[in-house]
């Protein structure tokens, strides 16, 4: 049995101070690890209000600004494309500057375009603000990095999945609440064109509140903030960027994440429009249906991480990889069924099917990611996370096409998911499986 000090030396990437937790009790709010865990997922939850607050209001915005289908598609692409570069940068900043300062700066910076998007009165200005708002999507990388630092290997996948899932839940709640906020403003006597602009003040304010909470109440590591602790241990093992870039497993995970998380953020963007245009529902009901998709994050992503951790204890990274392949394959089948749905009940049922396995795949992906390269956790998380946004950006081109219906686009993505599942299945994640399994066994004795 390891002593507390032994655990600290073996687990802390920075040396000294407190140690990562070996269990996750979500009802515990004490200690720097659990306090950081709760503030991290809560902040990521709030980020979705800024990132996707406009999505459920797009039927109104489309009419107000006179947007064509292609222009709506371009705004969808803009919403996720800026995140690609931002995630790569944020991942490296987490490794060097620390997650606490990085998250605080990102939140303050992102609040500016969220507040100002209401000044848009043309397609061009709306597109630019949508692009700037997309930077907030990099918040996911900090969430996963920070959780990875706070928890030991045996529970890391579960902790990442719960934090990511509860944060992603913000996408569903945003789709549900923003139309209600919009309707409330209209009820006060404002026009629809004024109401969607005023509604964005709410997420902008939430981002600033989150920035204060994050800076005030979190720490970079269990041992303390980067500037307050001895980092000599970490400095002896300098990050090797090329080592990460040359590792095929990183790119395989990035591709798989482009299919699962890429589809998630794409669906958050287009769901309301799809239900309004294809099934004739009103904006409020469309928001509720889109919210159902996002609401499943309350358990589904966590379930994927829990399963991955359990399988990893027996079969290492190879077992986690096989689980991920199965989850993505079933996601693809569900998407194909959703694309062919001719009635609203069938569409809802197939949406729930592909949403369940999509979100579980998200969790399983980040149960693998922290083990790929222990000295470059932030960079690996950034590349894999950026893969999700590259997928969302490419999917956006399908949804903007005048030659494809939204149903056609969903079908093509479903087939792409099956290809991604095969790629994950043949990828050998076992390069460090033996070492990872040894760490897990040591944590459990």
TrEMBL record:
Keywords for this protein: Cell membrane, Membrane, Nitrate assimilation, Transmembrane, Transmembrane helix, Transport
UniProt-listed InterPro entries: MFS, MFS_dom, MFS_trans_sf, NO3_transporter, NO3_transporter_NarK/NarU-like
Subcellular location: Cell membrane; Membrane
SUPFAM superfamilies with a match to the protein in the record: MFS general substrate transporter
Any one Gene Ontology molecular-function term assigned to this protein's record: nitrite transmembrane transporter activity
Record's GO cellular component terms: plasma membrane
Transmembrane feature ranges: 39-58, 70-90, 102-121, 127-145, 166-190, 196-215, 248-265, 285-303, 323-340, 376-397, 409-427
Gene Ontology biological process terms, A to Z: nitrate assimilation
Record family assignment: Belongs to the major facilitator superfamily. Nitrate/nitrite porter (TC 2.A.1.8) family.
Xref: NCBIfam families: 2A0108
PANTHER family on file: HIGH-AFFINITY NITRATE TRANSPORTER 2.3
Protein name (database record): Nitrate/nitrite transporter
Native source organism of the sequence: Emticicia aquatilis
Gene: crnA
């Amino acid at each position: 049995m390891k002593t507390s000090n032994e655990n600290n030396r073996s687990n802390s990437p920075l040396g000294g101070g407190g140690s990562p937790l070996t269990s996750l009790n979500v009802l515990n709010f004490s200690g720097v690890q659990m306090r950081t865990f709760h503030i991290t997922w809560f902040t990521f939850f709030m980020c979705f209000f800024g990132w996707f607050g406009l999505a459920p209001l797009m039927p109104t915005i489309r009419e107000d600004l006179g947007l064509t289908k292609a222009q709506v598609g371009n705004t969808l692409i803009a919403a996720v494309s800026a995140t690609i570069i931002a995630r790569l940068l944020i991942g490296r900043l987490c490794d060097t500057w620390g997650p606490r300062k990085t998250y605080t700066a990102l939140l303050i910076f992102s609040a500016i375009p969220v507040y100002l998007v209401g000044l848009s009165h043309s397609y061009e200005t709306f597109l630019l603000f949508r692009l700037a708002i997309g930077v907030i999507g990099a918040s996911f990388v900090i969430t996963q990095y920070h959780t990875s630092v706070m928890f030991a290997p045996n529970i890391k996948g579960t902790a990442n999945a719960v934090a990511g899932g509860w944060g992603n839940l913000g996408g569903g709640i945003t789709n549900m609440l923003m139309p209600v906020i919009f309707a409330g403003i209209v009820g006060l006597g404002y026009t629809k064109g004024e109401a969607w602009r005023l509604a964005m003040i709410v997420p902008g304010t939430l981002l600033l509140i989150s920035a204060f909470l994050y800076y005030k109440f979190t720490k970079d590591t269990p041992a303390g903030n980067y500037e307050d602790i001895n980092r000599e241990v970490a400095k002896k093992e300098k990050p090797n960027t090329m080592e990460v870039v040359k590792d095929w497993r990183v790119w395989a995970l990035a591709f798989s994440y482009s299919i699962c998380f890429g589809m998630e953020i794409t669906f958050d963007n287009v769901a309301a429009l799809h239900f309004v245009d294809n099934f004739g529902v009103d904006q409020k009901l469309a928001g509720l249906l889109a919210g159902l998709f996002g609401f499943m994050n309350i358990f589904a992503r966590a379930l994927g991480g829990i399963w991955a951790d359990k399988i990893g204890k027996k079969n290492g990274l190879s077992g986690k990889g096989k689980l991920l392949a199965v989850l993505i394959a079933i996601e693809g089948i569900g998407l194909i069924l959703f694309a062919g749905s001719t009635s609203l009940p069938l569409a809802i049922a197939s949406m729930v099917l592909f949403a369940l396995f999509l979100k579980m795949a998200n969790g399983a992906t980040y149960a693998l990611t922290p083990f790929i390269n222990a000295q470059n956790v932030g960079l690996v998380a950034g590349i894999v996370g950026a893969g999700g946004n590259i997928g969302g950006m490419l999917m956006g081109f399908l949804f903007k096409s005048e030659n494809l219906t939204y149903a056609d686009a969903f079908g093509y993505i479903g087939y792409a998911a099956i290809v991604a599942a095969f790629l994950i299945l043949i990828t050998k994640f076992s390069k460090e499986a033996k070492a990872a399994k040894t760490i897990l066994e040591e944590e459990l004795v």
